[in-house]
Amino acid sequence: MFTLFTDTDTDITPEIAKKYGYKLISMPYSIGENTIFPYEDFKEFKSHEYYDLLRTGVIPTTSAVSTERYKKYFEPELKKGNDILYVHFSRIMSGTFNGLNLVITELKEKYPDRNIYLLDTKAITVGAYVICSEIGELVLKGASIEEIFKWAETEVDHFATYFFADDLQFFKRSGRVSGLAAFFGGLIGIKPIITINQEGKMVSIAKAKGRKTAVEKLVSYVEELGDDIKNHKFAIAHTDAPELVELLVNMLKEKFGDDLNIDIFPANPTAGAHCGPNAVGLSFHAIHR
User: Fold this and answer.
1) Are 177 and 194 in contact (CB under 8 A)?
2) Of 271, 277, 272, which Cα lies nearest the Cα of 90?
3) What kind and span of H or E run contains 155?
């Protein structure tokens, strides 16, 4: 027996977690002195209110999960005699995994007959969502941990993620995007197009003049790299940008048909703290990242 975990940075909500059997690790963010744990300090993410607050100039900060919290998530399952499979957001994006490694070492000493497996989606928000969803489907079909890892060996790198940011002050503060030229911020209307590469890093790869052009750019990546997209999860996440999502969906359906099955949802608040409001991203099954 094993217990399935993921974290809120993958955009898996409590409802979806229940569907697949995931237990959620809440990734915190802070506004001023107030630290908030998604779906523990609130039941429903009120995304419009949150991103409207960011529009006023508030820039939340994010932090690592404490070792004690990781223990509180994992130890009860180990005590029950269950192994753990934690499908998580990109390890390379956060120092929280340093603390997690310490906890795993401690728990393995305490429960030597149990195993804790980590599966890196090498993605965050929308990209991690599609991978977690597909793994969830495998679990519902009775897949073993070994079968899940065998699937992940090839499939994790076949889910591409592309998005654009609207306000670069959020990314400048976080410093999480490689190749994001500082001059972008001084050019009115320029939107950097960002992908997540095979290392799990966010990389700025192009720029677009205006939001509509940025949306067109996202569609062009699906045209170029899309592979069997109708038989896999296709997802769009946004930071309170419903009009842009509608534009993107219309373009995608015009290109690929009305039967394209798309999950649409707000990006989680922790990821949103880094990209700010009015951002839109998508993830799809691709030839490669």
Assistant:
1) yes
2) 271
3) helix 145-155
pLDDT of residue 255: 95
Q: Enumerate the β-bridge partners of residue 24.
A: 6
Residue-wise pLDDT for 222-238, tens only, equals: 999 999 999 999 999 99
* Local structure of residue 225 (DSSP, 8 states): H
pLDDT (tens digit, 9 = 90+) per residue, 242-282?
999 999 999 999 999 999 999 999 999 999 998 899 999 99
Residue 143: what are its φ and ψ, rounded to 5°? Answer: -65, 145
Question: Percent of the chain scored above 90 by pLDDT?
Answer: 86
H helices within 156-241, ranges in order?
169-174, 211-225
Q: Extract the runs of DSSP E, i.e. beta strands, from the chain.
A: 2-7, 22-25, 29-31, 34-36, 61-62, 83-88, 116-120, 159-164, 177-178, 190-196, 202-209, 234-238, 262-266, 280-285
DSSP string, 228-250: SGGGS-EEEEESS-HHHHHHHHH
Residue 201: HSE in the Cβ half-sphere, 13 Å Cα cutoff: 10
Residue 182: pLDDT band (50, 70, 90) is: very low
Indicate the SS3 state at residue 63: coil
Residue with tokens 């409001």: 277
145-155 helix and 126-140 helix, angle to the nearest 10 degrees = 140
Q: In Å, how far are 4, 49, 122, 187, 279 from 138, measured between CA atoms?
A: 12, 35, 19, 45, 31
Q: What is the largest CA-CA distance in the chain?
A: 58
